Amino acid sequence: MESPVNKLKARWSGRSPVEVANQLAAPLYGSAGEWDLPKDVVPKAELLYLAVGIPDASALPKEALLESVQRVLNKPGDLALRYGFGQGPAGLRDWLAARRSAEEGFEVNGDWYQMTNGSSGAIDLIVRSMIDPGDVIISESPTYMGTLHNFRGVGADVRFVPVDDEGLDVQALAQLLGDLKNQGKRVKLIYTISAYQNPTGVTLSLARRRRLLELACEFDVMVLDDEAYRDLHFETPAPIALSALAEGWGVITTGTFSKTVATGIRIGWIHARPEMLAMFSRMRFAMGQNQLGLRMFMDFLEHGGFEPHLAHVREVYRRKRDLLHGALKAEVSEFMDWKLPAGGFYFWVTLKNGLRSQDLWRTAVEEGVAVNLGSGFMPQGEASEQCIRIAYAWTPEEQFAEAARRLRIACERVAAGEGA
Length: 420
Ligand SMILES: Cc1ncc(COP(=O)(O)O)c(C=O)c1O
Known about the structure:
binds pyridoxal-5'-phosphate, 2 domains, Aspartate Aminotransferase, domain 2, Aspartate Aminotransferase, domain 1, alpha/beta
């Protein structure tokens, strides 16, 4: 008799997942690989990665987290190992609220926080709760494509506004909001990464923060502020948070410990007025969150682990930014322009002399260095041919000089018409 596995295999093995996916998900299939390397290019040397947006592996607070997890598991009872529903442990949310109140000068409490599975989990929950298919979400461009994936997954009609040195272009936003209103479109959210943006590194200025809130109010649209990098400033902090400026009215903020501490812990949050949070927590049923992770992290915070760690990693990333800037200046300034980011993980680079990003990206991989294509962050393709993103946070600093040298060789090859 034919085995059931063989029958099942015959039924399923030739099928594309697109056949199985629902109408909203099907177009997303295959689009997750914007960060992939070119498949047909073989590197000449072991690849050096300037393409990774995660913390420095040598700066992770492993010992402190180990002590925390031991303390948590040594406690009597099973709190850390059983279902935990609702907004997340009160101590963790109270800690976030106290820090926020002190930093922003606007008093909030733990009721303003819903813990989530990273900030992408936060954004996923927000859009699933608020967005109907066809609703418009306005986003910056370039932007973080992971969030656009979330937006498209719920059938949002995503429109774009450019970013310049002061962040989101509020004049273009006013124009777009006016046009959409005239077309009778329902605009639900304006998505901004207001500090040390991914990928450009820019921060929304105070004047623009005020104007953004005025426009959001006038056109009756909520602001979704992704603060993934807000704590990672190298000189002066970013201007007052949009949520504090608005006293929470009409602003939903997402945050995360992914960039300041570690991406694998998956600890993020939504910060909004408590009545909004109630909507989000009722929309999702997933048997609660990872209690062990949350309680380990709460212990880490309560033992004063975070602030010294943050001070340390700010210094690590400031130094890495400067070192990579120096290495790029020495090797590739003839071929590219960039601005020094005041925080975060990235240089956003514009290629000169007609160099095309696709050619450079491919040739750089052949020479043994990976960077990110601009088109991975520019959904409409505008100017993406001239742009690449270079990330410095994760890469060991000893590799910067060699990575920049390989990048120069790649630029020279492309300029000579000898790219991969
Ligand atoms: C702007 C931005 N938002 C959100 C995320 C997702 O982070 P998390 O690990 O908190 O889900 C990233 C990760 O790269 C990001 O760059």
